[in-house]
Specification:
globular, alpha+beta, 6-stranded mixed beta sheet, Elongation Factor Tu (Ef-tu), domain 3, 27% strand, 11 helices, single chain, 421 residues
Length: 421
Amino acid sequence: MSSATNTSQINLARRLYGPDMIDAMWKDDPYLNRVKKDTSGFGEGRYVVVRIGDTSGVGGSFNVALRNQAPTQEQRFFVTERSIYSVFSMKGSFLRKHRGKPNTLLEGYKSQASSAKYGYQKLMEHAAWNDDGGTLGQLATTLNTSNMVLTFRTTKALFGLNLMGKHLTFATDTGAGTSPAGELNDGTNPYSVTVVAEDPQNDQLTVTGDNGATTLATAVVGITNASYAFIDGFYNASLSGKKAWNPISAPSSTAFFGLDRTSSPAKLSGWRVSSKGMMESTLTYALTQGDMTEVEQPMAFCHGDDWWAYMQEIGSKVQASDGEKQGSGKKMVEVYGPAGSCKLVRANRVPKGYAWVGDPAEDVLRSEGEIPQILNEDKAGVMLRAGDDDAYQSRLGGDANFMPDDSGKKLGPGAWTVVTW
């Protein structure tokens, strides 16, 4: 393959988006915007060490302390990276028509690159709050497989995903664990559909069958109202976000990054607080529990609908804050607990009905270099001639994963609390 022009060695994405692409990317999701970024990579993998017990050599006498001595009890996750790609292309005819017009060429590239960059950002936002399997969610019990409309079980789960034109696959499970069931397939390839219309307010997607079928039952053989949907390529291959490290329910004995978390579920997967009736009471109780366990919880992330409901509940008792500014209707609501204030923030990838309370600065998005980056390791060019078309192709990609990063306290996922409103 060859490069498109004699200037193809210039990193156009840097020209368009500045010297630091990674900081320019994460603006929409408040958790992803605040989590630490580390581009030093994984090597073969990175350990997350969690202290679940201190040294036990204590006693009322020296002999008893000596008899009871034992080392610190620690558990270790061995975290590896996952990959995300975004590919876009420009027709050769476009390049030929605008030969000698660099501004037009750059604008054409910019349009496609901006779209690819935005799509990549949406994938990363989804990944930041993802569970371990990568599912978009479970289909509704009311699903009608005689048409081509997918209805999802979780309310308002599709906002901000930008799924138009995406290919979806399906499975009987969430894709989590070391031995998932696998996608519904024809014996060789997974059945897939393409999104042609979105209705996030009603939790619906209209699709067409990639095999030409006109009903869900024939487009995806075996699909039921208990199936799970995935963006094609992400089944059991997604980054591990907050719902993976801090799941809504206490985890089973299924290994997560090599570790059975049932020995200390709160310290190895986060604390959980059920509803106390009023939303404000529930959140302040979570902050109280966090203070009792000596963790810092400066932020709480919830779905936009829950943020609105919280505001309706408290009325004018408190004012919202946005940084140092005060005023009603801003992005954050300040809530007070025993250890100080906590800001309630809207993050639409959070499932409706729940909130994650903690400090995003104690988590890290670790990547092999910048993410995304234009894939040009062989220096063949940032635009490559497609092998099967009169087109030139650019490829964004990266290898990364989310993980706790509080090596000093060794709290790991135990620094977070999952709230059920």
